[in-house]
Amino acid sequence: MASAPTGLILGIETSCDETAAAVVRHGSEILSNTVASQIPVHAPYGGVVPELASREHLRNILPVVRTALAEAGVSYDDLDAVAVTEGPGLAGALLVGISFSKSLSFSLSKPLIGVNHLEGHIHAVLLEEAQRAEQVNEATAPGRPILALVVSGGHTHLYLAKWSAGSAKPGAWTYRNVGRTVDDAAGEAFDKVAKLLGLGYPGGPWIDALAPHGNPDAVPFSFSQIKAKVHRRGAPGALDPTQETYFSFSGIKTAILRHTRVFEMEPSIEARRAALAALPTPKPSDALPLCDRRTLDLIASFQRSVVDDLKRKTFRAAEIHHAQRILVSGGVAANRELRVRFTAQAAEEHLPIAFPSVAMSTDNAAMIAAAAWPKFLTGDLAAETLTAEPSLALGR
Ligand code: KG4
Ligand code: ZN
Questions:
Q1: Does any domain span residue 258?
Q2: Which of 49, 276, 302, 372 is deepest in the core (most CB within 10 A)?
Q3: What does the H/E/C string look like for the chain?
Q4: Residue 120 and residue 191 in one domain
Q5: Cα of 313 to ligand 1 centre, how many Å?
């Protein structure tokens, strides 16, 4: 006999270097949100090693799911469905979560829902808003989209998100991709620049912590060459206004490398790298006394340039597409300067803006369970053929 609906979804996320499981009720109430981070495993390599990630997910998946259920105080039988990230991400890493979730849903005879990781990041914000009962999905003005900047280690995307509620059936979310990076993701730029300056991994939190100690105007970086590059790639003829909302972060990384060479910074970078490597668990505060003025100014200028470029193009996209409000999510949304400068711009333009809490900015499974809820309500369930989609796109 089928049990009464509980509104409980178990979310599972293994797309990159976090093994995560969470129980969320009605897509709006987090009962548990467990994350086993692999940062210490990958840190010595300065980046995620796919084989190690898969192995760690295999090791962690069962304990993480058990912890999530125990913390939520629920059993497998209480669940309405299992939701899992199907992509984008590392193939082997995704497969661990998908295989586990498929077996679980089969053995429990509960539906399985596949979730796009990027949609999950957008729902991290919507979930927390719903949890605070600030913004209910139904309250979003029909006809005018939300503009979502998803900015992480693997992605820099702008989406128009719309919630379509028919009178007879519950609503589904639809997405349109209106901006993206043509090369590196913003988080990747943070990670690579931190690495080349001899700082720790992942680089974002290190640069975030050190930037306030430098002068953000010391080194002027220009993003003007990006537009030319995008235009060359674009179709000939009329200028597509959305090209103003394309990003490129590989140039600034090269500019920083050149700067370190011109000013002969290599010996101090190597000294810092060695000093941090000698510590058992190096933290950004350990790096501060190891950074001279020139290095701190470079870090501050890099962060200011990236944040301002993200800000300018995001607000331009909001203008072009008449967005009713802006959401910013993904790991880089944890950045403090980004939050301050986006918030100030939004106030100036009288445009509402929202971020996830810092914990919900980076990868987690509560966002996957939350994104699955409208799919559960609309019967958008995974087929038996569900498999890892490393390059899965979101929307059109
Ligand atoms: O969303 P996420 O956890 O994983 C991906 O889906 O990629 O994002 C991780 C990325 C890394 O590149 C990390 O350096 C960056 O987010 N990040 C930050 C901050 N915290 C994490 N970047 C800038 N400032 C931060 N505070
Ligand atoms: Zn992510």
A1: yes
A2: 372
A3: CCCCCCCEEEEEECCCCEEEEEEEECCCEEEEEEEEECHHHHHHHCCCCHHHHHHHHHHHHHHHHHHHHHHHCCCHHHCCEEEEEEECCCHHHHHHHHHHHHHHHHHHCCCEEEEEHHHHHHHHHHHHHHHCCCCCHHHCCCCCCEEEEEECCCCEEEEEEEEECCCCCCCEEEEEEEEEECCCCHHHHHHHHHHHCCCCCCHHHHHHHHHHHCCCCCCCCCCHHHHHHHHHHCCCCCCCHHHHHCECCHHHHHHHHHHHHHCCCHHHHHHHHHHHHCCCCCCHHHHHHHCCHHHHHHHHHHHHHHHHHHHHHHHHHHHHCCCCEEEEECHHHHCHHHHHHHHHHHHHCCCCEECCCHHHHCCCCHHHHHHHHHHHHHCCCCCCCCCCCCCCCCCC
A4: no
A5: 19
